[in-house]
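To whoever is covering the structure queue this week,

Two jobs came back overnight. Logging them here so there's a record in the thread.

Job A:
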Amino acid sequence: MAPTDSERPDAPDLTAGDASGRGSLFSPAPKAVLFDIDGTLVDSNYLHVDAWSRAFEQVGHPVDTWRIHRSIGLDSDRLIEDLLGDDRGSAGGDHGEGSGEGSDAGAGSDASEGDDLGDRAKQLHTDIYAEMNDRLRPLPGAVELLRALHEAGVRVVLATSAPKNELDVLTGVLDCDDAIHATTSSDDVDTAKPEPDIVNIALERAGVTAAEALFVGDAVWDMKAAGRAGVRSIGVRTGGFGADELIEAGAIDVFDDAAAVLRAFRGASR
């Protein structure tokens, strides 16, 4: 069994400064904490993997699930580009059974009407994922962390690469709108993570500078987006990325989950 944050010999002490001069993450507390949602606050990453896997299979272009998982956290256009490459504009046609709307022999001629492989995969993912919404649940400590930060006067902003319709579902799962200062989604920007645009908008909506904020996420794309926006970031392992790769992507610390981050925040607030 993997060690927890408290069992690791190199577990960070967040109540005091360190040799790098970084100081504590939470003492003093940042003015705003920006959160990714999928895999950070809500246990949804592996549902997304399943939905994308089934979608790619149905359009006749199966993709290994481990590859899909490595792309979770990107916006859907970038994910499709990375996983399908040049094939994203092809019809899929005779590659397996495919979906009902994608198996016609002449489907390639319909690309101009938006019926290309990438568009169909995206819509199928949306539909399949929506069917699994009843399986979504908050990750350990997620709601409590948001409320603790809000009660301490810290502005909580949710900054996700998910589209607005998925954001609405996720905030419903968290059911703590009173603790959330603002939200952002991929609908607010032209380019989502790992580009910094979503993080920059989150900073604007929080009314703080990059130096006054902290970002919490589960994917390397979160760390890279935060870093490009000049915001410190910490990682959680609940999305399936390892601590080493989150650190390499820019995280200054990594915790098992939101509950571990909450313990660190409460410890620094004493």
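Job B:
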Amino acid sequence: MNDGPAQGDTPARHDALMGAWRVRRTVIDFLAGTRFVFSGQAVVTADAFEETGDIQIGERTLPASRSYRLDRRTDAVAVLRADGSAFISLDGRASQSVRHDCGADLYLGRLLFRGPDEWAEAWRVKGPRKNYASLGRFLRPPAPRCQARNAEVYWRSVSDRKAATPGMAAAPSKRPGPSSANRLPGLNGRWNHPFGGCARPAFPRPCG
């Protein structure tokens, strides 16, 4: 459930979220009197959200994962649990509030999309079975080293090809710096390796 009328370009928002993210989330569990931190990675695709990582509780570290199905509709993206039941829906706004009733437990969330490389979410969940607050931040991972390596390979191939072809101008002795990789054929855009140390993330604990 969203508050207020849907605004913004929902398909563009979904497209912008696809790819890999680094995740860090702090959760305060008022029922248990504990605080824990989740660190991991998540991946958003056209129809799914997958998150994996570790939860640090005191000196203990435990593996954690979660997944949601995504159903892209005309004016919203429905976030569904694994069994297909509804959780929340998101539209194209940069800031939006969401609500989910899970039996007697109430989930209130706020999502802030700060740009193509960062978004955040805050949740307050309260009821007879749950009572916690969480704050998560998601950042795009840095471009992997293979981008720079491939740029170097590209320029070497250009140099070798020019040297072997009569009439072609010699390749410049100084190759462009790393920033030029973004202008090379086949290297344009962000390089995401979904399961190579970067991935995307985060909704609160599954209802139930």
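Note for Job B: The mean pLDDT is 77.

Please reply-all if you pick these up so we don't duplicate work.
Q.
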